[in-house]
Amino acid sequence: MDMIWEGIVQAFVMIVTGDPEIFEITWLTLKVSGTATLISLLIGVPLGVTLAWTRFPGRKFLISLVNTAMGFPPVVVGLWVFLLLARNGPLGELELLYTPTAIVIAQSVIASPIVMGLTSAAIMQVDEKMRLQIRALGATRRQMLLLVIREARFSLIAAVIAGFGAVISEVGASMMVGGNIKGYSRVLTTATVMEVSKGNTEVAIGISVILMTLAYLVTLFLTMLQQREVKG
Fold it and tell me: Is residue 42 part of a domain?
């Protein structure tokens, strides 16, 4: 218990004293995870809507693949991204391995199936009677789609929360493709693992407290936006 308390105190000290390294790591964490979440939305929402809205051969099989991808271990994703970005890999010439960009790519791959799957489920859950009523009123297919998306917007915000939660807490892929380089590609999760391996448990607890606080604040903002939409 004393160790936990010392870790909480350590987190408070790092924040109050304005530890430049901690603030740099925290900002990079927010920037990387925020960018990955945005990319996953740009990929996952349109594909999720398309998957739910259209009918084509193999659709159920594709949905099962998306649902499976939602549970892919991050370290497996990290391995494949590593192989793609490695010097002798297909994208090795881009020299992205061990950079923040590589972490963004890996986290985007992790979050996209989550956003896609939850978006698809949200659209499919919209009452079929509502669709028939909209169609009966003479709405075009595009207008009907926009109204259905609006009806499912609360669940779509939940998809954003789930996607962000998955990437900001991820460590395996970030460590593998980012390299945990001090002052360049080190984020809060990889910094926590590093401090534990060095035996600095109190510092690791302090960093974990900062990570949980950051995740909570972002999730709180999204939750307030969601509840505001509900009240509206």
Answer: yes
